[in-house]
Amino acid sequence: MSATTATPATGRLVLLNPGPVNVHEDVRAAMASPDQCHREPEAAALMTRVREKATRVSGGDDTDTSVLLAGSGTAALEAAFSSIVPADGRILILDNGNYGERLWRIVDVHGIPHRRMEFGWCNPIDVDAVDRALSEDPGITHVGLVHHETSTGMLNPLREIGAVVAKHGRQFAVDAISSLGSERLDLRADHIDWCVGTANKCLEGLPGVSFVTAPRQRLEELEDVPARTFYLDLYGHFISQDRKNAPLFTPALQVMTALEQAIDRSLAEGVEGRAARYTALAEQIRTGLAERGVRFLLPAEQRANSVTNVYVPEGMTYDELHDGLKAEGYVVYSTQEQLEGVFRVANMGQLDGDDIAGFLAAFDRVVAKYADRGV
Ligand SMILES: *Cc1c(COP(=O)(O)O)cnc(C)c1O
């Protein structure tokens, strides 16, 4: 293929959206595992292994465990945030983007007592303000945080906030859906009580399985908290998976088989290795776009290593840019509602330097087309 052909050399669609991602061929192959019944010992063994590996990838040990859910990341988020706060508790939601708002929407829809601290999109979370809020309000029992706020691409200060929450003796619930696997996160060191992850972002699996990882003791304590939902009752899933060694409802076994492959690859590469790989790709994207005069949404030090938010170049709309790139085999992603005219280039998944170079070349061709139109 010549350098000017309209599809990437690999012939595949290069996904520069923040998940689902391009997966390794071994992960895709695992989807085609043999037909099986979910109430047989081999399915139970698969679930046990995936639970154990999901725990390890979150920095947990034998005192922690994971509960698997069938569904996208939001299923595990809703299972966690609807299940962990007792009737006489209250959760403080830290919100600085679309996904912080989602945490608030979940607790709100379940009528869970809460306080929402809104910092505004693109604003860092004020750790001192969180400290003060917890000092002033002993009624707050839990704190909810999004680690990587995927809407803006901002990495929130997990360790600092975890230390503050622990200092006040509250429980810390973290949406680590777009950070787990590529950003430093450790259940113990970050004082995380509830950690929510999913298959199809930085763990590089396929969509359909998500999970909640927690100290066993925390999960046991849920016995006293009445369920607010039937399908996403975290304690019910925990008891079934852990004590009965069986799924509560039909699990997504094929996706889970692929997830086991993906986590094996994550554990082999290591979070540091993956962070280094993602950082190099992000640098290539950021350097390349900076050379092209594109403006960035966030200062460099606030950015996670897997998402870059940039303004659409002058003279064209997001849809024109997206469609032009898609025709060349590259998928970029719009930024959610509050940030019109900004788009995202993610570098999660099985991508390499050639993919990014190809994207930048395609970007030039699409932008040139609209520059020509403008005169
Ligand atoms: C992707 C994502 C989710 C979950 O989205 P789903 O569409 O349910 O997979 C939740 N939180 C964050 C921070 C995310 O990036």
UniProtKB/TrEMBL annotation:
EC code(s) of this entry: 2.6.1.37
Record keywords: Aminotransferase, Pyridoxal phosphate, Pyruvate, Transferase
Membrane-spanning residues: none
Residues recorded as bearing N6-(pyridoxal phosphate)lysine in the entry: K201
Pfam family of the protein (one): Aminotran_5
Signal peptide from the UniProt entry: none
Residues annotated to bind substrate: R344
Ranges of residues in domain Aminotransferase class V: 29-319
Cofactor(s) required, per the database record: pyridoxal 5'-phosphate
Gene Ontology biological process: organic phosphonate catabolic process
InterPro entries according to UniProt: Aminotrans_V_dom, NH2EtPonate_pyrv_transaminase, PyrdxlP-dep_Trfase, PyrdxlP-dep_Trfase_major, PyrdxlP-dep_Trfase_small, SP_NH2Trfase/AEP_transaminase
Keyword set includes Transferase: yes
Molecular function terms, GO-annotated: 2-aminoethylphosphonate-pyruvate transaminase activity
Domain of life from the UniProt record: Bacteria
Catalytic activity as recorded in UniProt: (2-aminoethyl)phosphonate + pyruvate = phosphonoacetaldehyde + L-alanine
Enzyme class: transferase
HAMAP family reported in the protein's UniProt record: PhnW_aminotrans_5 (MF_01376)
The protein's name in its UniProt record: 2-aminoethylphosphonate--pyruvate transaminase
Organism listed in the record: Streptomyces marianii
